[in-house]
Structure formats: structure tokens, C-alpha cells
């Protein structure tokens, strides 16, 4: 399993409590949009971000939070923040 696949699996565990679309969740991939594909509402998206911060021991700035719309963006931001630690 590649590092990216591993991170997507970790991300799935984080978003699972907040999803409203099971089919979108089962097919979750880099292009999956949190709001449109998984039907995560904006309040729960904040919870997802907080859970990601806890898991990876990182802090998102407002700019990063605004970009956290899909799986690919989330992975890029997580990798960037982890590498800055």
C-alpha cells in the first residue's frame, strides 16, 4: 500500500462519522469532494479538520481550511504541515 493510499484510509476513518452518503464514502478517492460527494455539512467539516489536526499533531491556518474541499487538497495540506514540523 502506498503512503498516499495509507493516508486516504486514515482520512476515511476520520470522516466516517460525518458522512451522509455511504456510496460516495465507499468509493472515496483523491477527487472525492467532502461536501458534494460525501454530503458532509460545513459544521462537520470543521470537526473533520479538528480531528485531522489531532491525528497528525498539526494546525491548519485559515487559508488551509478554506482549501480543504476534497481528499486531494486534504492530503496535500496534511503532507505540507507534517513536513513543516
From TrEMBL:
Which superkingdom heads the taxonomic lineage of this protein's source?
Bacteria
The protein's matches in Gene3D superfamilies, at most eight in alphabetical order, are given as: ACP-like (1.10.1200.10)
This one is known as Acyl carrier protein
